[in-house]
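thought: fold this chain, then report.
action: predict
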Amino acid sequence: MSTDERYSRQRDLVPTDRLASCRATVIGVGAIGRQVALQLAAVGISSMQLVDFDVVEESNLASQGYLEADLGRPKVQATAELCRKVSGGLDVCEAAERFRRSMVVGNAVFCCVDKVDIRGLIWESVRRAADFFCDGRMSAEVLRVITASDAAGREHYPQTLFAPEEAYVGSCTAKSTIYCANVAAGMMLAQFTKWLRGLPVDMDLSLNLLAGELSVASP
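observation:
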């Protein structure tokens, strides 16, 4: 297979040299995180780390895109297997466990967890190691993507980590759809590729699919 031909249609959008220097860490491979991992594999990331302690349940099939054959398997294992099918040369590290402060992460971190306190723990643990940090959140048909890849983004991100008791009652994954997760993942990859090209990123954007409303905050 010709590598030049494989990536020919994205060559001007995804810099090969910058991408080759990146190791991506996806924390949480549920609705958004699984789609982020698959899209990273498709655009040609060469090294990726997946972190999630959970296993595939029946409720994950429609909303997270897992296969019936994946039921009962660790999510990182099922996702890594499909990522390797997307990109045969991909090096995937599977961490079927909860995120720990001591974990060594890549320089591009995608935070796709559903609890505010865990987001805070992840940020405090990786903010010095990650050159690019992107947090994807969703509830039903509303999504939010927050990116910290420069001074303004790094100052803004902690302000989005409100106390758990201030959060909307109920897990943000209680109501979710695969199409909203795919849009969120695509927006996260869009910020990533803009960062690769040295372009300004949108540090905080929200999209309500039902209302058709998009709000963007840039540096």
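thought: worth noting. The two ends are 41 Å apart (CA to CA).
final: tokens above.
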